[in-house]
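Q: How would the structure tokens look for this protein?
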Amino acid sequence: MDWYVASFFFLIFTYRLSQFYAIIKAKNLYKPNHQGDYGIALVWGPLTLAVILAPYDYLLRQESAGVGWIVLGSSFFIIATVIRGKSLADISKEFFFFHDKGAIIQIHTNGIYHHIRHPLYLSNIIFMLACATYFKSMLAFLAFLLGIAGVIVKTNLEEKALSSIYEDFNDYKLKTAKLLPRIY
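A: Here is the predicted structure in token form.
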């Protein structure tokens, strides 16, 4: 394995480590139950494809993307890692997956959630973009576009359910952006 691929996997490891660090720091050893949540595939499917297709595309071409693309991709990895870590730190002990059976759902409005309703999904989108740009991979970029569509569908489903459960959620929606402040 060359340094280029090894550094890519190091960046992925760092991204995932931020999640584990935030969960452990909050003393939350919660084990999610994804049974019945098929919508999770809308996000994790394209994300997994981006992780696999980006180095695969590079290995087929045997051509580095160039310093500019590597720096841009690394920057996106760092941004995704910071957003993911901050998001998890802000919800700390209440971390759960939306459709987890038996989870007590609570609307979080502090920290980053004061500005963005779905920062964890935003970090996933930026992560997929990081994979695509780091290797300048068109295959991973297609997975990134699929991921955006999946996140939009998944967040719409979650927000529809939350609106039916919590009256306050519609007010929260008016005050915050879904993914990008002042944009979307």
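Residues 138-165 form the longest helix (28 residues).

The helical segments are 3-25, 41-61, 67-91, 119-135, 138-165, 168-175.

Upvote if useful.
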